[in-house]
Amino acid sequence: MDDIAKALPRKGPASPEIADWIRDQIRTSRFVPGQRLVEVDIIRKTGGSRFKVREALQRLAAEGLVEIEENRGASVREASMSEIRQLYRSRAALESICAGDFARDASPAEKAELQAIAEKMESCLEDGAPERFGSLNAQWHAMIMRVTGNTVIESIVRRLNTPVHHLLFETFYRGNRMQDAVNDHRLILSAIMEGDVEGAERAMRQHVENGLQFLASLDKALHRE
């Protein structure tokens, strides 16, 4: 998505749309941690006004994705591994609650939809499509939170997912990580389909903790290089 202006009304994109575009640039490593975010460049790429671009940057700063310094402007923020560890542990606690609620309260149709998303993710293993896998994974987790109706947890988890570590998006789903995530999802889905609240909570907590363990090992490997 190099230029969202072409797909938006002539009046230009709203600040949330510009914020989404910046997130996408970071997620796909077009913007990297520590890189300055030049307003003029963002305006040219998105077609947004200076006011809307600044508003988008302020929004991302509030989420912890961007850092704004006086007289230096905005830059992509890099979270430490210590912070990432805290974020993942918080996610594990919150998402496990939602998984249990989903197992108890979701309708058969909603459970079937969740399973369908998981099956699409499994097809990404054969296709070797990490970006599509990541997108579907986010959709899968978001659905569990949305169906439970806990908007507070959903909002908190969205923010917890935002800070970007120097471990880039593409590198997270490499090697055996996609297969490991699929295996975790199968365990979560099995508990959900059986209406096993405690089992779903336990499996979701372990799934998020497994992601943290992988990030920690990848971080160590990168620092040895």
From TrEMBL:
Keywords: DNA-binding, Transcription, Transcription regulation. InterPro entries: GntR_C, TF_FadR/GntR_C, Tscrpt_reg_HTH_GntR, WH-like_DNA-bd_sf, WH_DNA-bd_sf. The keyword Transmembrane does not apply. Coiled coil: none annotated. GO terms for molecular function: DNA binding; DNA-binding transcription factor activity. SMART domains: FCD (SM00895), HTH_GNTR (SM00345). SUPFAM superfamilies: GntR ligand-binding domain-like (SSF48008), Winged helix' DNA-binding domain (SSF46785). Pfam families: FCD (PF07729), GntR (PF00392). This is DNA-binding transcriptional regulator, GntR family. It comes from Novosphingobium mathurense. The lineage of its organism: Bacteria, Pseudomonadati, Pseudomonadota, Alphaproteobacteria, Sphingomonadales.
